[in-house]
Specification:
Blueprint (H helix, E strand, L loop, with lengths): L6 H25 L28 E3 L9 E5 L9 E13 L6 E8 L1 H7 L2 E7 L2 E8 L3 E8 L9 E9 L3 E2 L6 E2 L1 E9 L1
Antiparallel strand pairs: 1-11, 2-3, 3-8, 3-11, 4-7, 4-11, 5-6, 5-8, 9-10
Length: 192
């Protein structure tokens, strides 16, 4: 026997289906009416027209600075002792970047260890700027030393690397491991 549908039940079923489709249609349309702000791509990144990249090497260095190794050319110990000084050997050399060369002095703080001086006797330290002799220092006593002297402008190069060397005439060589020690370097560089 076949099932008979009466008219009101068939219309009710169709009406519910159409009503559901109508609600779905309204939901889709209304969800498209949200006010979404405009978005823009970030601007293109460009380097400035003038100037150069910042140089990590400046005109002065403390041996305890994190970037001190960038200044060291040769004959200076790798790590800082007590976070503030380093052992220098026979001819320690440092490099510095100078923007200008007018009215500059070379300044250095260092120490001569008493135990080394006792074995080597009096020492002489010669200071060179870009290969030019600046001064000769003689020491017969241990302790902290400070040197500062104006540098002739023709010894220096503007907007370039400049090299400062300090050569000690007598070094101490360890009998046990062959370590070479000259003096203790604390800070050095150029000031106005």
């Amino acid at each position: 026997m076949s099932k008979k549908y009466n008219a009101p039940e068939c219309y009710t079923h169709n009406f519910v289906t159409v009503f559901r489709l109508y609600l779905l249609f309204l939901t889709c349309i209304l969800s498209g009416c949200v006010n979404i702000p405009d978005s823009y791509a970030p601007p293109v990144q460009r380097k400035p027209l003038g100037g150069t990249e910042p140089n990590p090497i400046g005109h002065f260095v403390q041996m305890g600075d994190l970037n001190a190794t960038a200044y060291i050319v040769k004959d200076v110990a790798e790590g800082a002792e007590a976070g503030s000084w380093r052992w220098a050997r026979k001819r320690p050399e440092l490099r510095f970047f100078l923007d200008n060369t007018a009215n500059l002095s070379f300044k250095v703080d260092f120490s001569i260890a008493e135990t080394l001086l006792r074995e080597t006797g009096p020492v002489t330290i010669s200071i060179f700027i870009n290969g030019h002799p600046l001064d000769v220092l003689k020491y017969s006593e241990a302790g902290e030393k400070h040197f500062e002297k104006p540098v002739p402008a023709d010894f220096l190069r503007a907007k370039s690397m400049n090299f400062a060397a300090m050569e000690i005439d007598k070094i101490w060589v360890s009998k046990s491991d062959g370590a070479v020690l000259g003096f203790i370097l604390t800070r050095a560089g150029f000031t106005q």
